[in-house]
Amino acid sequence: xxxxxTDQPPPIPALTTPVSSSATPRSPxxxxxMERLRSIVSVHRLWCPLPAPTDxxxxxxxxxxxxxxxxxxxxxxxxxxxxITLSGPLLFAEELVGNREPYWWPSVIAESVIVGLTVVLxxxxxxxxxxxAVIIISGALALAIPLLGSLAMDxxxxxxxxxxxxxxxxxxxxxxxxxxxFNAAVxxxxxxxxxxxxxxxxxxxxxxALFSWHAVGSLIVNLFIGAVQERQERISFLQSLLLEHExxxxxxxxxxx
Length: 257
What we know:
Shape: elongated
Largest sheet: none
């Protein structure tokens, strides 16, 4: 027998998340709520509030988007980590000598373990539902390592390289990983406190002005961009709910006619 060309392929188990059905409302939202959503969308505000239960629907939507992004895109993250790992000894061969050499490979191994363990955990529904807590912990640890390098390295060139890696990771935590702005700030602040605490404990002299410029400054800029991005994402989500509601109303009227 020939296979029907319209048959859909079976879903990939890794992409079947427990929030797939909760990201859209199972029952119609009240008309009064829909009117409020229209008012929120039509008024230009600095922030887009989400009245209940749309706040829970939006959180479920972001959770599903994040889990699917990680489970599909983790090879790209591995490629980025491998590129940084291999390029370091080539670009900084003169700097990675003496007491600086033992820092590089243990740091790379630690970052690889953090990334790998995080991806593995997100294959389990228990951790998918708690992805914000998982990312706060793993993100703080992944950020603390290059932060410590940017503080403790006595080579200006290597310190600048660690600073660039730090700013990249802050951007990923705030703008890519679908954390709430508060949780993204918490992850970054924890990393900053851990790195500065270890540096102070080691008694290493630090250029705190430069550190504040690249670490704290990068966090503030990314939080601002993240707020703008999340505001637009909230508006788009509310618009999708309105379109779904209007489509359901048209179908109901067509059935009555």
